[in-house]
Design goal:
With 282 residues, this protein is α/β, with parallel strands linked by helices. The chain contains six helices and 13 strands. The strands form two sheets. The protein has a ten-stranded mixed beta sheet with strand order 6-5-4-7-8-9-10-11-12-13, covered by helices on one side.
């Protein structure tokens, strides 16, 4: 049948897959990665190694020699007395190389001083070791007979001083039987007193504090004018001091003491021991 006959098996054309190799374009010779050129030469390696050895030798020589030997200790941030104490404590590093000094160890030794709250060490080449110090804050001069010691707000004894030293600090009078050791704390009964004096830095009183007394477990702050602030038992001391600071300036000149043992109800008194209850403090 024309145009519609079925082609016989013998005459069927079979498709054959053709395969071919497609060549990739070659990079120009100038663009090839020359690995040989990236590998350093033996001469370059020898020079680099020599420089490394020389640097190490220079550092070690400076470390072991007197090139950077400590000749001076400079103390920053401390009053003269504390600075001298720090210098005496750290004088063992004189003559040692700045490169071999263990700064952390030196700072730790200085921090162990009772008069130092914090310390850090730096190097000022060629011959100076710098010690930066934050001194502790003293609040009182503890007096026992003719002797005197500086004391912090944490009741810690810093060092012995002349009884007339630090006139701006309040005096804390102690019985002769009390044992005092530098670097240690006073007996616990005096801790509320030193904490109260530390709290006074946040309270404005009309006069300077002359002393603080501990009698029968109760606290009394004495101003240079002779005026007394009775704090009573060592509880709510900050609230009592704040109460005193609010009312003292308004008191009559005849008043010689202010009782703030109950801070919400301050009471003032005269030489005749009469008492005037003041307006309630908010």
């Amino acid at each position: 049948m024309a145009g519609g006959g079925r082609t016989g098996p013998g005459s069927r054309r079979r498709a054959h897959a053709a395969s071919a190799v497609v060549p990739l374009p070659r990079a120009p010779a100038d663009d090839r990665l020359d690995l040989v050129r990236l590998v350093p030469s033996g001469r370059s390696l020898a020079i680099a190694f020599g420089l490394l050895v020389a640097a190490f030798a220079a550092y070690w020589g400076a470390r072991e020699s007197s090139v950077f030997a400590v000749e001076r200790i400079e103390v920053r941030g401390a009053p003269p007395e504390v600075a001298r104490e720090v210098q005496r404590t750290a004088r063992g590093v004189i003559g040692a190389s700045l490169l071999e000094i263990d700064g952390s160890a030196v700072a730790g030794t200085v921090r162990n001083l009772p008069s130092v709250a914090a310390a850090s060490v730096d190097r000022a080449f060629p011959h100076t070791l710098v010690i930066k110090v934050a001194p502790v804050r003293t609040v009182a001069v503890a007096r026992r007979g003719e002797r005197a010691w500086l004391v912090t707000g944490l009741n810690r004894v810093i060092r012995e001083v002349d009884p007339r030293a630090e006139p701006a600090l309040a005096r804390l009078w102690l019985p002769r039987k009390v044992t005092i050791a530098i670097g240690e704390t006073l007996p616990a009964v005096y801790e509320p007193a030193t904490r109260a004096l530390a709290g006074l830095r946040d309270v404005r009183l009309p006069g300077r504090v002359k002393s603080i007394r501990v009698t029968g477990g109760e606290l009394t702050v004495v101003l240079h004018s002779g005026f007394e602030i009775l704090l009573g038992q060592p509880t709510d001391v900050l609230a009592k001091l704040a109460s005193a600071g609010r009312v003292l300036r308004a008191l009559d000149d005849r008043m010689v003491y202010l009782d703030v043992s109950v801070p919400e109800r301050p009471v003032a008194g005269t030489y005749l021991n009469s008492q005037v209850e003041l307006e309630r403090v908010g």
